[in-house]
Amino acid sequence: MMPLVVMGFPQFATLRIYYTDAEVAAAGLSEGNLRLYRFNGSTWEFQGGTNDTVANYVELAGVSAFSEWALADPADNPLPVELVSFTGVATPNGVQLSWTTASERHHAGFDLRRSLYQPTQPETWQTIASYSTLPELRSKGTTNSLSHYAFLDGTVETGKTYIYQLRSTDFDGTWYDHALRVTVRVPELSSALNYDYRLEQNYPNPFNPSTSIRFTMKEAGSAILVVTDVLGRVVFREILNAKQGENEYQFRASNLGSGMYFYTLYVSGFQQTRKMMLIK
C-alpha cells in the first residue's frame, strides 16, 4: 500500500489510505467495495469510509484515535450485525437515542456506551445501558428484517457534549464496537427549555368518567384550571402547581352529568379554552 495522508486537527482527523490497481487485483478485492478497518488491540473493527476509484484512495473523516488501519472488502468479512442508522437528539428529558439494523446473525444484544466529549482529553467510555438487564436492548437473534431500537439517556448534564457508541455481543460472547457514533450536545437550561403557554385537547374525548388534560408552561408556577357547563356555570376549579414544560392533569367527572363542557387554563395573563364531551 502507498503512504497514508492524515488531514485536519489531531482530535478530529481525516484519514486517507492510497492503493494501486495492482495491489487490489493481486488481493482479489473489488475496488468499489474497499472500506477501512481499525485494529483495537484484539480484532479488526469495520470503520467504513468513502473511496475514490479514480484517485485510488479510501477516506474516513472524524478519526479521533491513533491505531493500525487496513483496507478490506466488507463482503469478505461481513459483520454479524449490519447497523444502518444511529441517531441522537437532546430533549428536555435527556438524550433520545435510536438505531436500526438491516440484519443480525447470532446476536444477543446491545450495550450502549457513552463518553464525555473533551477536545483535549482522551475518550473515557462507560456502559450506561445493557441488553443483560434491559429487554428492549436484546436482539431477536438472527433476522434479515429491519429491527428498531431506542433508549432515553436521562443521566446527562446540561451544557455538556456526549459521544455515544453501540457494542454488540454475540451468543458465543464475542463483542465488537460499531464504528458509527453519535455526538450530542445538551443545551443549557436557558435554551433547552424554550416553552410557550399552551393548552392541549383532552384525551380521550368523548370520555367517561376521566380524561387527561395536558398543558405547557413557559415557566414553573401556579395555573388555574376551570371547567364550566354550556350555561357558563363553574362546575370545577383547581389551582395547579405546574413545572416548566409539559404537564398533565387527570380530570374526573364522576359527579357530573353527560353533556358538553368547557375547560380553561389561566396563568400569567394567558388563558385558553377548549371543549370536551362527557358521555355516560
Automatic annotation (TrEMBL):
Secretion system C-terminal sorting domain sequence ranges: 203-277
Gene3D superfamilies from the UniProt entry: Immunoglobulins
Superkingdom in the source lineage: Bacteria
InterPro entries referenced in this protein's UniProt entry, alphabetically: Ig-like_fold, Secre_tail
Annotated protein name in UniProt: T9SS C-terminal target domain-containing protein
